[in-house]
Amino acid sequence: MAKVASLAVVCIAAMLIAIVASHAEAVVTCGTVATDLSPCLDYVRMGGAIPAMCCNGIRSLFSAASTTQDRQTVCNCMKSAAGAISGVNLNLAAALPNKCGVNIPYKISPSIDCAKVQ
């Protein structure tokens, strides 16, 4: 009976670890990207001064993107948004992370292959 109880505890623990690990893998969603980057919309459309909330959102987003999967999600969401939002100046958008003190290892562009983002 003790062996069965021990086996049940081990199985339950393994299931909990698997559930927690699956949720830990994908922290960033396109909703996260949209929320964090929405303060940047006026800037990437018209230029001018970069709002502090924009840089805060960029720092928060890239800080949260701690895995390759998260970074690829951010890349894909930004790529989709850049093509879907009218009036976006891609040069301003591409330079924005660096201007906010965030170094990303890829250039934001409509032609980027997000599967190659590490």
TrEMBL record:
> Quick check: keyword rRNA-binding in the entry?
no
List, alphabetically, the SUPFAM superfamilies matched. Bifunctional inhibitor/lipid-transfer protein/seed storage 2S albumin
Q: Which Pfam families match?
A: Tryp_alpha_amyl (PF00234)
What are the GO BP annotations of this UniProt entry? lipid transport
Kindly indicate where the leader peptide sits in this chain: 1-26
Q: What InterPro entries does the database record attribute to this sequence? A: Bifun_inhib/LTP/seed_sf, Bifunc_inhib/LTP/seed_store, Plant_nsLTP
User: Ranges for the Bifunctional inhibitor/plant lipid transfer protein/seed storage helical domain?
Assistant: 30-114
Listed GO MF terms: lipid binding
The UniProt entry's sequence similarity note says: Belongs to the plant LTP family.
PANTHER family from the entry?
NON-SPECIFIC LIPID-TRANSFER PROTEIN 2-RELATED
| Annotated protein name in UniProt | Non-specific lipid-transfer protein
